[in-house]
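Students often ask why inverse folding is considered easier than folding. One informal answer: many sequences map to the same fold, so there is more than one right answer. In these notes we will look at a single instance of the problem. The structure comes first.
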């Protein structure tokens, strides 16, 4: 029997209890835009997703460490949504990232991965990914996930959303590297997917008849850098985008979140 991977949906607007749902719609409701400004005042755009955390209405907001680090302000903007009579509306939330200069988020010691525990307001409508939704080594092996597997990537290119309510764009790609497991040996894999600014932290989702499953998180676009000799002793550095996304493998994300308190 095929296992259906479940996502915990917390519908605070309608009920204080957890309800179960599955599918890409629930994933879309778990993904939010994260934004702020860097030390030079330039905008920083990223994507984050919500994972279950202990505590009422508490979630882990997960994204790339470089996205959290790039925001120099003490607060970041998280674009939540609310729902009234089946219609979604924007519901922005200010999240404190630092207190007296010290980060309130937790960064992985060796990976470009971080999370911050936040309490969501009762007016918000959202879904929370369960720990079981994040793939482990056994699931990757059993489902034969690898090169050629199709994935969806919900995110916010240049901070843009698919509508006024603030939902991400869901774009498709295929895994283009082999092998992708074990994650201890291959901590990253690659997806044939053009990455724009704002996609750092976006979840990479496998979908199919068995349900949805989180396979990883977008870290950055892949570039090829070349040094070409010019006249005299000068050299010109050329940077070419390869149309590939570098993705952190899900078992490492699950292990990290499991160690958070």
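Output (designed amino acids):
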């Amino acid at each position: 029997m095929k296992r259906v991977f479940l996502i915990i949906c917390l519908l605070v607007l309608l009920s204080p209890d957890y309800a179960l749902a599955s599918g890409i719609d629930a994933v879309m409701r778990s993904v939010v835009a994260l934004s702020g400004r860097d030390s030079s005042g330039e905008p920083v755009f990223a994507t984050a997703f919500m994972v279950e955390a202990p505590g009422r209405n508490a979630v882990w907001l997960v994204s790339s460490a470089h996205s959290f680090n790039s925001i120099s302000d003490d607060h970041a903007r998280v674009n939540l949504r609310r729902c009234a009579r089946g219609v979604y509306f924007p519901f922005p939330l200010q999240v404190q990232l630092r207190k007296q200069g010290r980060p309130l988020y937790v960064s992985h010691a060796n990976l470009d991965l971080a999370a911050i525990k936040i309490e969501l307001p009762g007016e918000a409508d959202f879904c929370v990914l369960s720990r079981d939704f994040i793939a482990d080594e056994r699931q990757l092996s059993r489902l034969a996930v690898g090169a050629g597997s199709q994935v969806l990537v919900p995110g916010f290119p240049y901070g843009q959303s698919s509508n006024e309510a603030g939902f991400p764009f869901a774009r498709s790609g295929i895994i283009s590297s082999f092998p992708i497991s074990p994650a201890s040996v291959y901590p990253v894999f690659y997806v044939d997917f053009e990455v724009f600014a704002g996609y750092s932290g976006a979840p990479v989702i496998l979908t199919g008849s068995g349900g949805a499953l989180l396979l990883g998180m977008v870290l950055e676009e892949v570039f090829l850098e070349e040094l070409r000799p010019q006249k005299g002793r000068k050299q010109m550095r050329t940077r070419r985008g390869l149309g590939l996304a570098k993705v952190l493998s899900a078992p490492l994300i699950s292990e990290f979140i499991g160690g958070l308190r």
